[in-house]
Amino acid sequence: MLNPLAEELNRTISDTNPHVFEMLSEKGKRIYFPTKGILAQTAEANGKAINATIGIALDDNGSTMILSSVDEHVVLKGKDVFSYAPNYGKPELRNVWKKMLLKKNPTLKDAPISIPVVTTALTHGLSAAGYLFIGDGDTIITPDFYWENYSLVFDYAYGSKLRTFQMFNENRGFNTDELRRYLLDGPAGKKIVVLNFPNNPTGYTLTNEEALITKDIIIESADKGNSVIVFVDDAYFGLVFEEGVFKESMFSLLASAHERVLAIKFDGATKEDYVWGLRVGFVTFGCAKNSPGFYSALESKLGGSIRGSVSSASNLGQSVLLAAYGSTTYENEKAEKFAVLQQRYEKIKEILNNHPEYLQTLRPLPFNSGYFMCLEVKNGKAEEIRRLLLDKYNTGVIAQGNLLRVAFSSTPINLIEKLFDNIYNASTEID
Questions:
Q1: What are the tens digits of pLDDT across the range 54-111?
Q2: This prediction's pTM
């Protein structure tokens, strides 16, 4: 079934030139631009005194978070700016990122993994890998709280279908039982799983115990004869604010887990290094049964997908990052930005603890990491509350189903208390 937005675009094309409409592939007929999703809601919140919609990190003075080691290198040599970058990415950057990846994920140790391939940020990486592994009729298993862009990247582009399971169990932990049921359900065959931690929209990351259980479930599925492809979406990697939470990527547990498990890590500088506009991401493969030629073949296939879409990622963006990674102040600057986000996270925890009355109308979902947290609206009227926040309280948040997603990444700490007060007051006005 086509999305109504896609149907509208198809009618426009067909009414103007039916010959061109017939030229569209079935994928082309399914694709659309989400004019009524997060992007539209963010646009409506522009100019509001409090705007907790956009998923970027801002300093408390409202300016974009920037690392000095990145900002100071915007003047570069011509060859690092104006010439094409290689289709797979600059070799030196690929090698540096792999070294950083191994340092940040010590569980990998000496596990043989591929050399990361550079993409035009993480979304493009998901799409490029989807080109290789996702076809019409494939089912993708993922929690019911997921980034809405998965629908565009996977379902509408490649004809798959998201099959969601309830993310949290009755103990407000990750629902490993449901994941196991979905992975073992039905006859043996290809299983595709998307894991995104820290999760967008909930801001939840698996505990150490949950991460190991999840790994064991995936191995169990592979032992049953399933071929399991795990898309590990690490868009918010590194932003974990609590002890006992798994601080590495799930890729580190899955890259050598089983010969029937192919783990694919999607990450990048966008959130890890506060450079949303540079659009530099990476895709890395890991499998227990491998060889250099095996990984080279996968990289070549991915490179072909990249070549056939954007040709290559930004040379300028890659060059800026290479310069920053060589800076002696890079690590300290990252730690400073992390501290700002953690302070906001802790402020929210304090506010929720000090205001039990919020529970009359709102219920926070578990969160421990990332950019966001979510409030479940008990009367289910999240969109009505969002509209009231815009119109009466000069405040913007994102409504998704019966949830309000709050981006503390872009909310100054001195406005967080007012933000939650506004949300609560608005929720009490909607019957």
A1: 888 989 988 888 888 888 877 877 678 778 888 899 999 999 999 999 999 999 988 8
A2: 0.90
Gap between the Cα atoms of 372 and 378, Å rounded: 19
d(CA 141, CA 186): 13
Q: 370-414, pLDDT tens digit by residue? A: 999 999 999 999 999 999 999 999 999 999 999 999 999 999 999
What is the number of alpha carbons within 13 Å of residue 233 lying toward its C-beta? 24
Range list of H helices, 205-355: 208-223, 251-254, 269-272, 292-307, 315-325, 330-354
CA distance 323 to 364: 41
Inter-residue contact 375 to 367 (CB < 8 Å): no
User: CA–CA separation, 217 vs 374, rounded Å?
Assistant: 27
Place of tokens 């950057």: 93
Whether 161 and 180 have beta carbons less than 8 Å apart is answered as no
What's the CA gap between 22 and 14, in Å, rounded?
Answer: 8
Phi, psi of 36 (to 5 degrees): -120, 15
DSSP-derived 3-state class of residue 395: strand
Q: Which residue has the tokens 């939840």?
A: 204
Contact 404, 423 (CB under 8 A): yes
Average pLDDT over the chain, rounded to an integer: 92
Phi and psi torsions of 372, nearest 5°: -125, 165
